[in-house]
Amino acid sequence: MIDYVGGNPATNQNPWSSFFKTIAILRIGAGLMLMTRHGWSAGVGAYEFIWKEQNWDWVKTFSDAGLPQPTLLAPAVAVVVTAVAFAWITGFLTRLFAVILMPVVIGFLILAPMAGAIYIEAAWLYLLIAFTLLLFGSGAISLDKLFRLGESWSSRPRKKCGY
Fold first, then answer.
1. What is the pTM (predicted TM-score) of this model?
2. pLDDT digits (tens, 9 = 90+) for 94-124
3. Pair 34, 27: CB distance under 8 Å
4. Other CB atoms within 10 Å distance of the CB of residue 10
5. Range of 108's domain?
6. Closest among 19, 49, 39, 57 to 139, alpha carbons compared
7. Is residue 86 part of a domain?
8. What is the DSSP letter of 155?
9. How far is C-alpha 58 from the chain's CA centre?
10. Domain for residue 13, yes or no?
11. Domain for residue 89, yes or no?
12. 8 part of a folded domain
């Protein structure tokens, strides 16, 4: 039986096929969802809380959960969520930002069990996505790949001595 008909099967026939064969779909999709559902509103809320001195429900929620310094912690979490979303969308230092997001999500899961089933489910999904991105990196289409960030030192060719 013939499995392949055509030229060299090792060559990439369609430039979009490498995009769909990589983890970039998960990374970009999760980054867009994190930015549109949580990051953008958190960033705007933190900005208005800090610079315009308006009330923000995150500070009250953090205070009700018994967290220390909610006026500092809530904007810090908002900055982390927004930065992680932006980093995942662009594919910049994906593994680092996955590690940074994990304690935030785990803290949410521990401290906010009464947040509602939809938020708990979203937190578990973001935790699994962060773990997956930590293991597999950003994929073929990313700033990490463009600038060769995070490449393994063992995979680089070694220089041979010319003796």
1. 0.78
2. 999 999 999 999 999 988 777 788 889 999 9
3. no
4. 5
5. 23-140
6. 19
7. yes
8. G
9. 21
10. no
11. yes
12. no
